[in-house]
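hey so i finally got around to running both of the ones u sent me last week. sorry it took forever, my laptop kept dying halfway thru and i had to restart like 3 times lol. anyway pasting them below in the order u listed, first the sequence line then the structure token line for each. didnt double check formatting much so if smth looks off just lmk and ill redo it

first one:
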Amino acid sequence: MTIDKSEIREREKRKRVLFLFKVITFILLLWFSVDLSKKLLPYISFIDNVLKAATFLLSSHIIISLGRLITVRFYLRKKGQDPFRSNFVLGINHIAGILNVLVLVISLMFLFGIDPGEFFTSITIVAAAIALLSKDYITNMINGLIIMFSDQLSLGDTVKIGDQQGKIQDVTLLNMVLVNEEADIVMIPNATILTSQVINYSRQHHKKLTFEFEMSLKPTLEITSLEERLKQVAFSFDKAIVKNTFTLKTTEIKHQTVQLKCQFLMAVSNKAIEKEIRRTINQTIIEIAREN
């Protein structure tokens, strides 16, 4: 769900046309509301409630749409040719959607002759109980909005969240949707994202390749020769990697095995080359493990 700036502008044009239609409909409703009330009252006893609900619904929608259009237009103009982060617009759309749902609920109250002020006052205890029961949902919603308005993550970024890695396809009020290398759809709750370690590879100038593996603790195992062999294989991809970033670290020594981590940066962003490097390094690690 990566959206570019031109697509956003086209959508905004359609939304401005819809906004104009709402304004015209609202003006016509105000113009003819008195006449409609007089003519339809003998046939529809609750016509005043219908007109009141429709007037409130349209006027509120117009105000919300106007605020949304102004905010998005200001954001697009401010960005100009700068890097564009479409999740900001996504956040504005979600806030507008929440407000529109609230307006719809209040409009239905007007339709059925319920006073919203008295209604919300009378259900204060019930509302508190509902909020308590749905606190996880509310927390996810708030965290989702925080992520949308953050400049740290954006649609299309390649990230690692906990054990999951993939490209951000969408951010909803409940979760973030990732697409991993196997094209699987992974949904991570927003609350989990803000409490987990997040690595944004798209923010790095060079992509880091990491290989974690174990080797048996045998007399034939020499870390120095292992490092030289892996380095020789990695350096065979001469222009694809940054040579002075190659490292081989011992992360943990156990009773019978030792855990190692090999890392280096790619000089170019190329999926095909990255896949070939990973395959070659992994195959070399397997061969070394068999030899030992």
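and the second one:
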Amino acid sequence: VCKAAASYAFERNIDKSNLDHPHANIDNIKVVMEDFTRAINEVKPAFGVSLDQLDLCMPNGIINFGPRFDRLYETGLKFLAQVHESERTPLLSILLEGSAGSGKTALAAKLASQADYPYIKFISAESLVNQTEVARAHKITQAFEDAYRSPLSVVVLDNIERLVSYVKIGPRFSNEILQILLVLISKRPPKGHRLLVVGTTSSLAVLEQLELAGENGVFTTSMHVPYLSQPEVETVMTELGCFEPDGIRQCAAEIGEGGIGIKTLHMVTEMARSMSKGSITPADFKQCLRSYGL
């Protein structure tokens, strides 16, 4: 950061029309607050908290859709408090499981952002794309090693079945990364250090087969992130404020008995919003649902 700030300070004193001579004596060039602020905004820390990355996982924010969300969120906060306060449980691990589009990643990011811990690391398959198996294994290991240096840490493992490169055909997966996760998720941090691991998966059965979840799994506990029921869909639609008030119940009734993931609901809503001149009507919403094959 200091080097970048010094570079900005030097840049301010350069005569762009004559690059061989600065405006003032180089010895008199000083770093001011403006230079330091620009440097802080430019340099991204390799260790610490990346709030930008967490915000990317919550593009639509977090909407409280009812009692089931309250129970999920409050339970997650209790785990955060337990890791922070209890000396007997320096390590806890939570697995958020549910169908695709149910909002697991957003919930994991929200819990991590609420932790207020000095070290928060978010690991996803997207962040490891185009890397060799050895490189991916090293990055995952390095994230946990960095966490052990901090007194309080959160490590989020998003879409774990993708992290281990699981493919149904075969089935096939990366045994090296699997063995690393089996060890690191259950490894207690050094004395005086505390760690919370939050994982997400859309394939609980797969993780049970890999002994990551279930009775023989390494996660302390798992929490189911459900699809929205019709009353919960109505709550979300009301909160979004882009539906015709009189048509919200009819829009929600278009969703089948199996419910819908909140992420999927946001995507359908955005399509309907883009094609509607004003508030979203039941006809617009139904058409967009069919476009998504729902």
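quick thing i noticed on the 2nd:
The CA atoms of residues 229 and 259 lie 5 Å apart.
anyway thats it, ttyl
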